[in-house]
Amino acid sequence: MLTYADIDVSKKALLFEVDDVLFPKKDYLLQVYYLFAHLLEYTEAVPPAGELTGFMKTAYEHHGEAGLFDRAVEAFGVDTKYRVQFERMHKTARLPAKLLLYQAMLDLMRQASAHGKQLLVFTDGDPAMQLNKLRHVEWNGLDQLVKVYFKEELRAKGHAPLDYLLEENGLQMNEVLYIHAGDTADLAIAKDVDCLAAGRFLESTAKLSTFHTDNE
Q1: Which of 13, 99, 167, 194 has the fewest CB atoms lying closer than 10 Å?
Q2: pLDDT for 188
Q3: Confidence (pLDDT) at 45
Q4: Residues of the chain whose pLDDT is less than 50?
Q5: What pLDDT, on a 0 to 100 scale, did the predictor assign at position 203?
Q6: Which pLDDT score, from 0 to 100, does residue 205 have?
């Protein structure tokens, strides 16, 4: 397992993706499913929120996000008119519990900041949803030090995201380290800057979700 001590001292900034890097993506999604299930029970009386939450959790763990709402429609007869609400809640949900940073990432960010390194969140995906996630993070004071860049938003404005980030912060490519989740999208910039997968900093037990539904 890597720590701050393993990072090249010449790096002036650490770039972090969000999902499964700062915290488990699952911790956000399960709370969205929990809130949606309770909204549906309150509005329609059925299905019971606990049953729908449990179903969506299991379906997500086995099949991922794709088609999850359709699975709920098939299993519980959920009215398809709620699809819009379900999708909107991914961007606007007010979570019942804070999103807790992986301890290893919290330690890494604290040590990097103490050594004068810049902390930059560099995230892909829907900017509204990513921003909503970041608003619910328990930063332990680091929110005063972190600058956030949304790749999709920068592309929409005609910028090359990485070039924009580097220029705005007075950085060269060889002065940054990008910590990512390890998927193909993250690795698209690997040819330009040094990258490390977040898993190299995390113990296997750290990847467990910290949010629990009513049935757990």
Answers
A1: 167
A2: 60
A3: 85
A4: 205, 207-209, 215
A5: 74
A6: 47
- Clarify whether residues 19 and 31 are in a common domain: no
Domain boundary among the residues 73, 92, 111 is at 92
The whole-number pLDDT of residue 99 equals 97
Please, what sign has the CA dihedral across residues 71, 127, 20, 188? Answer: positive
CA-angle at 155, arms to 149 and 156, nearest 5° = 110
Which two three-digit tokens encode residue 160?
Answer: 């090359």
CA gap 192, 215 in Å, rounded:
45
Chain CA centroid to CA 192, Å: 23
Comparing CA positions, the residue from 114, 124, 199, 134 lying closest to residue 162 is: 124
| Structural domain count, the chain | 2
- What does the DSSP assignment read for 107-171? HHHHHHHHTT-EEEEEE-S-HHHHHHHHHTEE-TTGGGTEEEEEHHHHHHTT--HHHHHHHHTT-
